[in-house]
């Protein structure tokens, strides 16, 4: 919205500051044309290793579910779990969520697996954070593959929360400090095509 020249003149004359532009409270989806208040999650169906494998390798070398992945290659077995990386919004309630994958050690993977499949949250409450390597490349950021992270198991049947190591990587900074809603909208439009 532009301000008329008369209004700007009167504002300067009286010393009145113009109102700041309104912050967006919703975003328009390029796919459906509707306005939405909540942001869609950016989700990866598998770790990058699976996505880069041929169809034959995917069939032969990977056991992939919606929440876990085991990859067998010449170096041995590699274990992955799906989690959630949240970027808090700085100018309103909410987060931009990424459904991402991280590696776990064999011991941690098999310690985690029964608690995820069990309806009893008591086992999850006692699990300490587990070290992992971030296992996806997020578009719009410098390379994110193999960033150090911690996997925090959550109760209520929720996927674990992924916390990146505190570094100066832009994604780690965004997770610590948050991003404005408009930046989240721009990300969604640029990288999800919605």
Summarize the structure.
The protein is of the alpha+beta class and 194 residues long. The chain has 7 helices and 10 strands.
Give an account of the 3D structure.
By secondary structure, the chain is of the alpha+beta class. The chain has one domain (26-192). The chain is built from seven helices and ten strands.
Rg, rounded, reads 22 Å
End-to-end C-alpha gap = 25 Å
Q: Name the average pLDDT.
A: 86
What overall geometry do the principal axes of the alpha carbons give? elongated
Strand content: 25-35%
Number of domains: 1
Give the fraction of residues assigned to helices: 25-40%
Number of strands: 10
Q: Strand arrangement, largest sheet?
A: 3-7-6-5-4
Which sheet architecture does the biggest sheet show?
A: 5 strands, mixed
The run of helices and strands is: HEEEHHEEEEHHEEEHH
Low-confidence stretches: none
**What is the number of helices?**
7
Topology of helices and strands:
Blueprint: H1 5-14, E1 27-28, E2 35-36, E3 42-43, H2 48-52, H3 55-61, E4 62-64, E5 68-73, E6 76-88, E7 95-104, H4 106-117, H5 122-125, E8 130-133, E9 148-152, E10 161-164, H6 170-177, H7 181-192
Parallel strand pairs: 3-7
Antiparallel strand pairs: 1-2, 4-5, 5-6, 6-7, 8-9, 9-10
């Amino acid at each position: 919205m532009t301000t008329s020249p008369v209004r700007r003149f009167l504002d300067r004359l009286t010393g009145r500051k113009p109102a700041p532009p309104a912050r967006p409270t919703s975003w328009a989806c390029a796919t459906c044309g509707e306005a939405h208040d909540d942001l869609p999650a950016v989700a990866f169906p598998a770790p990058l290793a699976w996505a880069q494998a041929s169809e034959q390798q995917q069939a032969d070398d990977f056991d992939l579910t919606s929440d876990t992945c085991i990859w067998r290659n010449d170096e041995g077995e590699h274990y992955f779990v799906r989690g959630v990386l949240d970027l808090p919004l700085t100018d309103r309630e909410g987060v931009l969520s990424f459904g991402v994958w991280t590696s776990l050690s064999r011991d941690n993977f098999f310690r985690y697996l029964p608690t995820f499949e069990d309806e009893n949250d008591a086992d999850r409450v006692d699990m300490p954070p587990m070290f992992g390597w971030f296992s996806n490349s997020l578009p719009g950021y410098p390379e994110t593959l193999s960033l150090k992270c911690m996997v925090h198991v959550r109760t209520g049947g929720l996927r674990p929360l992924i916390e990146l190591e505190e570094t100066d990587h832009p994604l780690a900074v965004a997770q610590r400090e948050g991003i404005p809603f408009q930046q989240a909208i721009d990300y969604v439009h640029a990288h999800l095509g919605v």
